[in-house]
């Protein structure tokens, strides 16, 4: 009876801990500031080139004519414009490749701060290209901006996953996706004719990039570094404890310190692993495959095709071409609202239902869109069904597939493996992005409206894989997630390590006692695990 009462007491205490999640001011500011200067700019640069496309092509033609005395032919102009748009993905791939040594040496927060150098340089090059009469400056700026995006889309999810309590890790991780959507929507709004969508003002669209970068560069240095990075990689216990206290908004962070120490015991004497070492590690084999699948589907599921068709479908439905830019804002608004909704419910519903359900809904609406586009000239109301399908596909994407892949990458891997894992995820992301930009025109030309069936098939393959392989990860530690994958990886959790932990429990308590006393004395001790 006494044991039962004690058990009930522990359960109540655990439930109270789960309910009491501290959204401290530092945690909120760090997530918003980090995302505003990072994922926001990625989304912004995806949409910002759409509105001034005609003016930029005219600038290219005028520059060419001034240099060589004749107008550029249509094929060369199309090639230059295609390079301008797609080169962003090449820069992103470079950023994803170089991010691992940068976050290892500088840390997560400092990487985000220093990354603003790329953003500011890119903004200056692109905004001054018209004044300088050099379209090469615009192309070079797009490359550099891509490098910035490639670094930030790895460093930001890494930072957010390491500063957030596991109870809200999914919600905080969705900040990345939410700000991508807000960035896309902002690019659409600023591209309106009343703002910067005019021939004389289009350079300001690129100059605006400086604003989020400077805000992040000013605010983020006053916030703590990732406490996990400080404790596990820098062995700075004093700063790690202070960082936990600021992010969690409480003085007693012994439980959080113990969780990190428990992970460090399992991986003690393990240095930061390389990509090859990670790929050779049997214990994370299916985690890597799952990250590759989710990141590949993230780019290959057809959302870029949706953006391509939007203006044509709106035009076919009878909407005036002058008013199409304003109607297009509805797509950005739906995208943002769906991402916010996902952030609010992810800790209740979990990652699996949102991710698999999102792909499932996209399959349905892709099928309906294919039918409506094929028959829209025969039935007068079908173009409106096409518009609904476009908005529904965008919402379905943002509910799950649009942000959860970044969350999963941060949850699947332990501290020493995380940078290499994000490099793999980023490489797949940007290569898939480039492939879509390169291959979609040929797919569209060959299949016409039936091209959406290709994307439906990709969504189906992704959803099927995730249904059978992906475990639920909400509110779970790294060890618990590893346990869920252990059978599929054909490994057992290192029982020797667990026995070793039990056998060394006494000595561990002595180490933690030394840790506490060192903090109390204001000292910093290294190698405590």
From TrEMBL:
Q: How does it sit in the membrane?
A: Multi-pass membrane protein
Q: Which InterPro entries match?
A: GLUT, MFS_dom, MFS_sugar_transport-like, MFS_trans_sf, Sugar/inositol_transpt, Sugar_transporter_CS
Q: Which GO terms describe its biological process?
A: D-glucose import; dehydroascorbic acid transport
* GO MF annotations, alphabetized: D-glucose transmembrane transporter activity
Q: Which Gene3D superfamilies match?
A: MFS general substrate transporter like domains
Disordered, as annotated region: 503-529
SUPFAM superfamilies in alphabetical order: MFS general substrate transporter
Name the record gives this protein: GTR9 protein
> What organism is this sequence from?
Orthonyx spaldingii
Upper classification of the organism: Eukaryota, Metazoa, Chordata, Craniata, Vertebrata
């Amino acid at each position: 009876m006494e044991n039962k009462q004690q058990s009930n007491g522990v359960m109540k205490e655990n439930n109270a801990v789960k309910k009491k999640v501290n959204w401290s001011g530092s945690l909120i500011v760090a997530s918003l500031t980090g995302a505003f200067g990072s994922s926001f700019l990625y989304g912004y640069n995806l949409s910002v080139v759409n509105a001034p496309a005609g003016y930029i092509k005219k600038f290219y033609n005028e520059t060419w004519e001034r240099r060589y005395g004749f107008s550029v032919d249509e094929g060369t102009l199309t090639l230059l414009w295609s390079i301008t748009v797609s080169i962003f993905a090449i820069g992103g791939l470079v950023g994803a490749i170089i991010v691992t040594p940068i976050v290892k040496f500088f840390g997560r927060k400092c990487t985000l701060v220093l990354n603003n150098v790329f953003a500011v340089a890119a903004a200056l090059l692109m905004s001054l290209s018209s004044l300088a009469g050099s379209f090469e400056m615009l192309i070079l700026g797009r490359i550099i901006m891509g490098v910035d995006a490639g670094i930030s889309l790895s460093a930001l999810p890494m930072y957010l996953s390491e500063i957030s309590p596991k109870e809200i890790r999914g919600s905080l991780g969705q900040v990345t996706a939410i700000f991508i959507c807000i960035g896309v929507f902002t690019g659409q709004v600023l591209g309106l004719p009343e703002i910067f969508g005019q021939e004389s003002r289009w350079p300001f669209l690129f100059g605006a990039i400086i604003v989020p970068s400077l805000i992040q560069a000013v605010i983020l240095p006053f916030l703590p570094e990732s406490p996990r990075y400080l404790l596990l990689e820098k062995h700075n216990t004093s700063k790690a404890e202070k960082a936990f206290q600021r992010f969690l908004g409480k003085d007693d962070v012994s439980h959080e310190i113990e969780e990190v120490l428990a992970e460090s015991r399992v991986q003690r004497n393990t240095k930061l692993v390389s990509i090859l070492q990670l790929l050779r590690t049997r214990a994370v084999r299916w985690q890597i495959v799952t990250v590759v699948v989710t990141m590949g589907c993230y780019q290959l599921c057809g959302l870029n095709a949706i953006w391509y068709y939007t203006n044509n479908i709106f035009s076919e439905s009878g909407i005036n071409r002058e008013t199409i830019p304003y109607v297009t804002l509805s797509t950005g608004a739906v995208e943002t609202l769906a991402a916010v909704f996902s952030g609010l419910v992810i800790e209740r519903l979990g990652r699996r239902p949102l991710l698999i359900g999102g792909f499932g809904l996209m399959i349905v609406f892709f099928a309906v869109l294919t039918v409506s586009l094929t028959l829209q000239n025969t039935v007068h109301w079908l173009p409106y069904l096409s518009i609904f399908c476009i908005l529904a596909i965008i919402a379905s994407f943002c509910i799950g597939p649009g942000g959860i892949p970044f969350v999963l990458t941060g949850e699947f891997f332990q501290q020493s493996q995380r940078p290499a894992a994000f490099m793999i995820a980023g490489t797949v992301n940007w290569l898939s992005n480039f492939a879509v930009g390169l291959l979609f025109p040929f797919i569209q030309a060959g299949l016409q409206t039936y091209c959406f069936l290709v994307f439906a098939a990709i969504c189906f393959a992704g959803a099927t894989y995730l249904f059978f392989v992906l475990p639920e990860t909400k509110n779970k530690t790294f060890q618990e997630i590893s346990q869920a994958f252990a059978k599929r990886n054909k490994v057992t959790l290192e029982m020797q390590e667990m026995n070793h932990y039990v056998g060394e429990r006494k000595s561990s308590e002595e180490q933690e006692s030394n840790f506490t006393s060192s903090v109390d004395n204001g000292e910093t001790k290294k190698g405590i695990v």
